[in-house]
Amino acid sequence: MNASTHRPLDTRQVIATPVAVALIGTLQAEYGAVLFHQSGGCCDGSSPMCYPQDEFIVGDRDVKLGEIGGAPFYISPSQFEYWKHTQLIIDVVEGRGGMFSLENGRGVRFHVRSRLFEDAEVDALKAAGRFGEEAAGKPGRPF
């Protein structure tokens, strides 16, 4: 337990709200297996993008943060370095989805929220090799 908040440590690097999990299920029913990629690219900003698994090539240095709704979630090395201190919380908000993301055209889009990991959580991530240089650059490293 974390002494400051009296809750168990939660070192999952990516989680999803129930609304996001439901949308992922809808997309999986329509497209089959999907994956997420967080790139921070130019066209769609830093929106998490959802693609059919067989239509997206994961980069050699991309980091697998975990899975949400049964879908693997990858992040580029530069974004991992920026976000490694946080737990990414994937949510759904009204709006237009990313141009190439599967939710586009549904009036909603995936959205990243985050919370900073507490010191004890960072220590646990470091001990597990899931925080710094040791995690980046290991293709598809499962967490």
Can you tell me about this structure?
- The chain is an alpha/beta fold and 143 residues long.
- The chain has one domain (14-127): HesB-like domain (Hypothetical Protein Aq_1857, Chain: A).
- The chain has helices at 18-31, 77-83, 119-127, and strands at 14-16, 34-38, 49-52, 63-68, 71-75, 86-94, 108-116.
- The protein has a four-stranded mixed beta sheet with strand order 3-2-5-4. Strands 1-6-7 form a three-stranded mixed beta sheet.
- Residues 139-143 have low confidence and may be disordered.
Largest sheet entry:
4 strands, mixed
Helix content: 10-25%
Contiguous uncertain segments of 5+ residues: 139-143
Mean pLDDT: 86
> What is the number of independent domains?
1
Span between termini: 21 Å
Q: Provide the β-strand percentage band.
A: 25-35%
| CATH arch. level architecture | Sandwich
- Summarize the helix and strand pattern as letters: EHEEEEHEEH
Count of DSSP helices? 3
Q: How is the secondary structure organized here?
A:
Elements: E1 14-16, H1 18-31, E2 34-38, E3 49-52, E4 63-68, E5 71-75, H2 77-83, E6 86-94, E7 108-116, H3 119-127
Parallel strand pairs: 1-6, 2-5
Antiparallel strand pairs: 2-3, 4-5, 6-7
Structure in a nutshell:
With 143 residues, the protein is an alpha/beta fold. 21% of the residues lie in helices and 29% in strands.
